[in-house]
Amino acid sequence: MLGAHLRRLREASGISREDAGWQIRASESKISRMELGRVGFKERDVADLLTHYGLADGEERDRLLTLARDANAPGWWHRYSDILPAWFQPYIGLESAASLIRNYEVQFVPGLLQTREYARAVVSLGHARTGPEGVERRVELRMTRQQVLRKPEAPQFWAVVDEGALRRPVGGRQVMIAQLEALIGATELPNVRIQVVPFVIGGHAAHGGAFSIMRFAEPDLPDVVYVEQLTSAIYLDKREDVDQYQIVMETLCIEAAPPEQTPDILRKIAADLSR
């Protein structure tokens, strides 16, 4: 967000990246990385740039300098840095700042909607070698992440889940039934929408697998697509890439059962698992 503001001010002043870099004893490429939010910010550099861009004082300057301090402050998730892979940390920051999160899942229930028992079963699948303490730390991280849906000005969360993820009894039948009941409860939250992609539609547009799209209230920030792999993740913000994923998500939402049918679908799956 700070980088986007700096770019807007620089362009409005007719100043090149090279000239801006000279003002803070940095390269043109560093200015580019700052404007894209890919490097940290020194408050002194931000102050010098604001002065160079004609913002020597005033409320906007104070707000942007505060933003620079906030940008350097560690997020709550940094206390889990011992278990968080470097490629996942940016996602938690983006998730915490998003105004809209759209998520398609094919294998598991979305992390933001998982019960503690279900999350423990999922985490154990990939981190059994870390021992009980390592598993519990990762479960606690996931539970803490879920608070984003209940904070003031919480984001809108729109989840599209493949029916297979809901019928797969991760953690056993009772854990899965409790998870389905929790999802039914989540459908009553004003900022949560859940759709199910039923088996009966056959193949569908999201053949590439799970992904998330995050949108932000700040108009200068582009949407970001997150695609997780086994040992890494891809972050996409180029317009043509984001557009492709938006099309797939819109198609999924059309093909999936309407949100108002979700509670009945979940109850039916829970009843099948209870037999």
Helix content: 40-55%
Gyration radius, to the nearest Å?
22 Å
Query: If helices are DSSP runs of H or I spanning 4 or more residues, what is the number of helices?
Result: 12
How many strand segments?
6
Structural class: alpha/beta
Element pattern in H and E:
HHHHHHEHHEHHEEEEHH
Give the low-pLDDT segments.
none
Portion in beta strands: 5-15%
How would you describe this structure to a colleague?
It is a single chain. The protein is an alpha/beta fold and 275 residues long. Helices cover 49% and strands 12% of the residues. It has a 6-stranded mixed beta sheet with strand order 3-2-1-4-5-6, with helices on both faces. The longest helix is centred in the last third of the chain and has 17 residues.
Quick recap:
The protein has 275 residues and is an alpha/beta fold. It is built from 12 helices and 6 strands.
Key features?
alpha/beta; 12 helices; 275 residues; 6-stranded mixed beta sheet; single chain
List the helices and strands and how they pair.
Layout: H1 2-12, H2 17-23, H3 28-35, H4 43-52, H5 59-72, H6 89-97, E1 100-105, H7 116-127, H8 131-145, E2 156-162, H9 163-167, H10 173-186, E3 192-197, E4 211-215, E5 224-228, E6 233-236, H11 239-255, H12 262-274
Parallel strand pairs: 1-2, 2-3
Antiparallel strand pairs: 1-4, 4-5, 5-6
